[in-house]
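F.,

This is the one I mentioned.
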């Protein structure tokens, strides 16, 4: 079905479920400006493609799931003349109105609330690293990373909830073990707007200290970060699980676009957090870093990993156990989260 103002093409698909995972709006290229998915009515899922220029559908079909590739809706489109597109819009509206017994005007509603102030609070998922059988790093005095990350996560949750601006969920609220994939899946299933994984790992080089914030990239900032991520990714093996699988190579251009968009947002979030942490606590040199952390792999959720400090450094160990230092760090993280969402909201309304 073709719609105008802005030019859109809607593709309806029969669905057996009543719930759908709605991807965030995606900035596209070429003919499609962005796309949205909604439940048109029980049993019918509608994908709306917002166009940059008039276009018509050549063919649309469903590809069944193969192996680890999910089922896909493929829509082939070609450019159209404004006149022909307008004719299609009028014809589709008339046909639709005849089917549903509603006046055509009811169908040309606003395509969405994109750009306006969101009515719902953003969801922040905080992921206290490790837990249960997986202790994470340990300091010589016996203090364990899993306990530190949980203490920081609970405090950060409280601060964010108290601000009234966010919904906040934790991947674990006690000493429970979760696989890396389960942490990612929880954020994705709840359509989190920001995923923050908290850690306090250790290096062999005990002189390395300070806080840093990571985003995901296959290429690590340096060799130490590469080793750090490799060790972190082994936490599933520690607990007797197999290595988590990375997402399949991207063949779907929309997923690829979404992933690139998320990496950009993740980087902006990392910068916002570092900007607030820097005046408050000791930081590593070049505190915005990249490494291939599995836990940051969600293609549809901006994700960052905060290394609060290192349990291999005496000064960091002392700080990580002080409640005053924890308050300072958590306060800075909360301000960074606020700056990130302020920036995103401003960008969306421009
Ligand atoms: Zn860790």
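My design for it:
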């Amino acid at each position: 079905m073709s719609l105008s103002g802005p030019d859109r093409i809607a593709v309806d698909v029969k669905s057996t479920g009543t719930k759908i995972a709605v991807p965030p709006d995606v900035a596209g290229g070429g003919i499609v400006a962005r796309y949205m998915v909604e439940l048109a009515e029980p049993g019918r899922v509608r994908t709306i493609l917002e166009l940059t220029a008039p276009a018509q559908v050549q063919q649309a079909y469903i590809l069944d799931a193969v192996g680890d590739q999910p089922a896909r809706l493929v829509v082939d489109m070609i450019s159209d003349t404004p006149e022909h597109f307008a004719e299609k819009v009028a014809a589709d509206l008339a046909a639709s109105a005849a089917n549903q017994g509603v006046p055509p005007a009811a169908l040309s509603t606003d395509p969405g609330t994109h750009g306006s102030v969101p009515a719902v609070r953003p969801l922040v998922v905080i992921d206290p690293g490790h837990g249960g059988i997986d202790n994470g790093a340990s300091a010589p005095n016996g203090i364990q990373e899993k306990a530190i990350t949980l203490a920081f996560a609970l405090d950060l949750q409280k601060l964010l909830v108290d601000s009234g601006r966010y919904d906040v969920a934790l991947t674990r609220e006690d000493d429970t073990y979760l696989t890396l994939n389960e942490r990612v899946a929880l954020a994705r299933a709840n359509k989190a707007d920001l995923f923050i994984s908290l850690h306090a790992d250790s290096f062999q080089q005990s002189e390395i200290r300070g806080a840093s914030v990571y985003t995901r990239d296959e290429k690590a900032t340096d060799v130490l970060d590469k080793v750090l991520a490799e060790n972190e990714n082994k936490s599933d093996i520690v607990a007797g699980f197999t290595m988590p699988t990375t997402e399949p190579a991207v063949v779907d251009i929309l997923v690829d676009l979404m992933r690139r968009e998320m990496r950009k947002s993740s980087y902006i979030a990392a910068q916002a957090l570092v900007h607030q942490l820097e005046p408050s606590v000791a930081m590593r040199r070049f505190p915005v870093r990249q490494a291939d952390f599995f836990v940051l792999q969600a293609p549809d959720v901006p994700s960052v990993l905060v290394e609060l400090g290192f349990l291999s450094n005496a000064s960091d160990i002392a700080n990580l156990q002080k409640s005053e230092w924890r308050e300072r760090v958590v306060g800075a993280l909360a301000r960074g989260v606020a700056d990130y969402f302020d920036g995103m909201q401003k960008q969306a309304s421009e």
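Residues 100-118 have pLDDT under 50 and may be disordered.

Talk soon.
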